[in-house]
Amino acid sequence: MSVAKKQYKRVTTKSLVEMKSQGEKIAMLTAYDYTMAKIVDGAGIDVILVGDSASNVMAGHETTLPITLDQMIYHAASVIRAVHRALVVVDLPFGSYQSDPKEALRSAIRIMKESGGHAVKLEGGKEIKDSVKRILHAGIPVMGHLGLTPQSIYKFGTYTVRAKEEAEAAKLKADALMLEKAGCFALVLEKVPAKLAQEVAESLTIPVIGIGAGNGVDGQVLVTHDMIGMTHEFNPRFLRRYLDLYTEMTSAFEKYRDDVKSRDFPSDEEQY
């Protein structure tokens, strides 16, 4: 039985604000390719994030930093071709927006024009305020991202929970309000205390989507490959695994190998 309060043929930035005002939680997952995006979209997920986590999940890098703008556009275009309902948000990768608002706008325009994405996501608060405003003034929707910001991993030196101290919590609240006032349509809070995340969500009119931020926010996002168990080394507290595809797929591949070696595959019925 669906828990959705309204059936959206197309989820838009306006839809997400409506969901928040109506008390309906927002479901968000990642996708980086056509096949996965088609399944995620068909399941009724509201927002698909083409995350720079593709750097880890798809390319095997240790951090999100190496992925390029061209690579993000490739992944986003693949996802867009599969999607009929969900809002598709594309991460601006490290180095494409931090230093120069004009460069940020050029990067966002490339994503929108070359991939067909619906919105972009940027990490950071007041440090990137000018970049956010420049992109918004061009009519491109922006989703903010505060708390743990993986693109800044070498600055923080750790993936532990952010904003546990009063000063950092106060800055996060101020940055969240600034992003809303600037015109962001939504905000991701990553790995922050649940109480703080709820306070931020209640203080804003735009939706706050959490990952490791408790249940007091307006929605949740997970990396799809993590929640279906295709990855198995990553086990943070906030991750719920809905499948164990790593084990299932390994078993299937081993069975295929054995069937080929034993000449069981292909059978007479599987030949021309």
Short characterization:
The chain has about 270 residues and is α/β, with parallel strands linked by helices. It has 11 helices and 8 strands.
Kindly identify the CATH topology of the largest domain: TIM Barrel
Residues in β-strands, percent: 5-15%
The CATH architecture of the largest domain can be named as Alpha-Beta Barrel
Low-confidence stretches: none
H/E topology pattern: HEHEHHEHEHEHHEHEEHH
Q: Could you give the distance between the termini?
A: 44 Å
* Share of helical residues: 40-55%
What is the C-level CATH assignment of the largest domain? Alpha Beta
Average pLDDT: 94
Shape: globular
Tally of alpha and pi helices: 11
The CATH H-level homologous superfamily of the largest domain:
Phosphoenolpyruvate-binding domains
Q: Care to count the β-strands?
A: 8
Number of domains: 2
Major beta sheet, strand line-up: 1-2-3-4-5-6-7-8
Please tell me how large the radius of gyration is: 20 Å
Structural class, judged by helices and strands?
alpha/beta
Biggest sheet architecture: 8 strands, parallel, barrel
